[in-house]
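May I ask you for just one protein sequence along with its backbone structure tokens in two labelled lines?

_____
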Amino acid sequence: MTSIVTITPNPAVDVSTAVEKIIPVYKLRGAWRRRDPGGGGINVARVIKRLGGDVSAIYPIGGSTGDSLRKLVEREGVASQTFAISDETREDFFVGETDTGQQYRFILPGPELLQSEWQCCLDLLSRSEPFPRFVVASGSLPRGVPDDFYARIARVAKQRGAKMILDTSGPALAAALAEGIYLIKPNLREMHDLTGREPSDALEWEDAAKNLVRNGNVAMISLTMGHLGAALVTRDRTLRAPPLAITPVSAVGAGDSFLGALIHGLASEIDLEAAFRLAAAAGAAALLNPGTELCRADDVRRLAEAVILKSA
């Protein structure tokens, strides 16, 4: 067992292309086609592997799309721990408009998991020997999976002395926080839903994150704020990273790239500033690539030199 395990209960095969302009009725012929493995935890695992980390991914597979997903994941060198489901793994479809630079993201309905199926995921984690140091759960919950699913994972991680990292939203996030989490990575919409607050600037968003940390249910919050940059908030300090000047090709997977690089840094036991700088660079590097290609290691290392951190 590797030191990092990611869990993705609702993965997908991401299909992407580009057209000059989206027009009703007409046949629109894509300029190219990509098929990438998708879903939060899988994307995080892909980034960790690209940066030289050792990671395995737990996720369900169903039907021919599930078989394709597993092959795509393993093609990137990420070890898979899969469990079978009776419903078909979902596909997502992304289209870029070259005339305007606009992106259109079509998220198709996902499978419905039976109790026996999602329980397999928990069993796979519980039986892991040796147990990983970091358990990373990311993404939405598919139909049929209870809101406290991530809380159950957090409970297992706590019992085995592992650090739980979570990137999700809504009731699933609230339930897991009640159990206790090492790190969460909300964006501004997710932070608003979690706190009920709507700050007007980055400092007020950071203050909202500090209040959550002071409540004691999460040790660290990595807050991604789009054009406002990113922040990493602990009980003792706040690190800020202004956004880099990047002309985006695609924003898909930027948050997952950010989180994957941050976890890789934490697992590698480099200092917190270096890990956060790597994360900010990875989030920016993902913007340079189409589809769900995510960040490339050489771009991450190059951009990390341009990240200027501020500390409070």
About this structure: The longest strand covers residues 12-19. The chain is about 35% helix and 25% strand. The chain has a mean pLDDT of 94.
